[in-house]
Amino acid sequence: MASYKPSDxxxxxxxxxxxRQGIGKGDILPTAESMFHDHQSANKYGLANCxxxxxxxxxxxxxxxxxxxxxxxxxxxNCMMDMVRAHQAELAI
Length: 93
Known about the structure:
By secondary structure, the protein is mainly alpha-helical. It has a single domain (8-92), classed as HAD superfamily/HAD-like (Rossmann fold, 3-Layer(aba) Sandwich). The chain is built from 3 helices and 3 strands, in the order H-E-H-E-E-H. It has helices at 8-20, 35-44, 80-92, and strands at 31-32, 50-52, 75-77. The chain has a 3-stranded parallel β-sheet with strand order 1-2-3, sandwiched between helices.
């Protein structure tokens, strides 16, 4: 049965599947652009999250819906490469 973001079924399924593999909420980092489709759900499920803010130099939310109240995020990068560089820097410490 299909479900589409931001349906709770997506996060429910992900969390159940990962739990069966011994992976808990503290080991999961949803990483996405859409505040509406991804980060609202991550907040609802108590997950840390990373915002890839590709539209950092533009107004509005582009093709995604305005989330209303902005969700919380734990990390923010303008592109995936910036995230990779930050991770590599952390590993070098």
